[in-house]
Write a structure and sequence with these properties.
With about 550 residues, the protein is α/β, with parallel strands linked by helices. The protein contains 18 helices and 22 strands. It has a domain of about 160 residues. This is PRAME family member 8-like.
Amino acid sequence: MPRDQRRAPESQSLQSVPGPAGIPRAASHLVQDSSLKMSIRTPASLQHLAMQSLLSYQALATSGLEDLPVLLFPWLFQEAYARGHTEVLKAMVQAWPFSCLPLGDLAKSPDLETFKAVLDGLDLILANKERPHAVKLQVLDLRKENPDIWTQGYTSMARIVPSGVLMDRPTRSRHSGMTEEQPFLIAIDLTIKNGAQDDLQAYLLQWAREKKERVQLCSRKLQILQSSLSKVYKTLLVVSLDSIQELVLNEVSCSVKMIFKLAPYLRQMKNLHILKCTKIRSYHQYTQFEEWIYLHFFWAQLRHLQHLQELHVHDGFFSDGNLPTILRRLTPLKTLSLNELRMQDADLCFLAQCPCTRKLKHLHLRNLVLNTFRPDRLRTLLQPVTSTLESLALEFCDFTDDRLSAILPALIQCFHLSFFSFYGNKISMAALQNLLRHMSRLRHLRLGIYPAPLESYHLSRDLKQVLYSPRRFAQVQADLAQALTHMETTHKVQICVNKDSNWSKKYFSDSDCEFYILCPDGSWVKTRKGCAGLSALAE
């Protein structure tokens, strides 16, 4: 009887399977008993014993797969994978009764030979063009999307639907123009980094490269964390570029030259939702004009990305005057994060007028020297998004009392704001209390992170350093706790104190800071930035 017609797996047995004397009946008895316990999340001990008994005779286990109840496939596969029974794995892949094989959780620290056995099984499937079974294995999912799927049993395994994988894209015959059978899909989040590449990933890339006509490698998230162009090219030539939804470029040491060479590939990532560029610098002697040309060509490709929703740029990736090139042709963004960038007053003015910033839900500006900007520029940036903004971070941006007063009218109109971060700025106790009073009126606000006021510090004797004063900060905490009680604020309040005495340095990080949260009893407790359950903007 075909596997897809089996409706009562409890009645199935392995008695008809030839094998060593006494083993088939014992294995069948254990399998039948254990099938009654499949509603339990943790495998029963009898079931575990059945798997061990069956796998101790690999020839028996391999030949008996056609009669194995579908209900028990996940458990037996998990046991075979954990114990490295390569021949059983190869056979089980061919007989797998579901459309998706989610190996992400099992493949955390895989033995390479065990993983090769899975790919050997796929080789045999690809060679069998007829695929006679009604349920066809179509996807090998190596992402960690379903961490508990292997402990939830048959029911969860049967209804799993891989997300973020292009399942419905037909291929075309080069000769007839007719639609051919879809290629076999492999889903994995890829990371290209310095040093020895992950063995599993390296082997998979080579395997997929050799079978590119029959296999489609999909990567929802691609991280490029190193500078080897050859490794990057080998990956980009085999992965389906329109499957990439998140691209991370981090510390690419050959800098603008690699960015220039990546540009043609970027424009093919039609479904890109998130682009993160971090610490991209030039380590070669390019002229300013050459650098501008390289970056201009890369950013010009963004006009082809019609689904881009998040743009995160950190640490020196803009050259002067490039911001209009980057943002002019973008569709409306949901998230914009800018950190440690060279910006001019004209850039901020353009940012405030650009169509792509008119529907922002999340805006994160950090380590931007805004003391040379007119205060009304930032107010103009906030005014169009007061009805959409849900999280706002203005961290280490040289805000003073006067600059805070300039943006406050627009800030208090952000009625949907749930997260607000303003730490790292230099404001007085009076300005902080005024800010807290206004923010307490925003009923959707769940967390606010504020700077310890200037009254928490004192000047060194030589008047050259600003020093943190524990005694002064303790008094500030007491005064703030009392003030907040009278305000009846409903959002969680965190205060950040900067313990780095070098206030003149260009950029700051969270390692310079300590965070304290106000407890219901009025005491302050040292904590981490943010709070559990609230997703703040990415750095």
